[in-house]
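pinned: reference chain
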Amino acid sequence: MTVLKKSEVKRAALVKATINLVNNQGFHAAPMSKIAKMANVSPATIYLYFENKQDMINQVYKEVKAEYVAFAFETFKDDLSVEDGFELVWRRMAKYKLDDIEKGFFLSQCENTPMIDVESRQEGVKNLAPLLDLWDRGIAQDIIKPLSHHLLYAFSIYPLAFLLNAHKRGDFKITNTHLNDAYQAAWASIKK
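pinned: its structure tokens
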């Protein structure tokens, strides 16, 4: 078992508090003082890890996005067929977001706010390179519609955020049947 240093514990508490407050109160209603209080650290401690609120939000976003993408591609292999590769990545993305609904919801919030700076967004997109390459291969093989990466993402991956948000609010309980149907709809939306 890994023993965390006191500083790592404090930083992890700040990250968790940031995610919680942003998810439950929004970006603007999550002041540094509330984050520090929820993390059980002094407000000055935040500045040991982050320059300001903008830096904190961007860093937390990049960390969560990197964790999400690492999980999504953990078992991905370049030699998978386009359809098998897409299904594997799509299902792992769904699993991550459902298994850690708070982080999944936080990512959804970040994808819909101007709070995340351009550099942080670009870093998040770079992490998706295996999926973008898979789509390019699918387009070249005439398996996937020749659409921009943004459109492919919007039609096949982004609907997961909608389902997750409804699930988190309690409006819709995602079952395995729903996930299977959602995957089929995602694949149908981008395949030729």
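why pinned: The chain has two domains: 1-49, 54-190. The first helix runs from residue 6 to 25.
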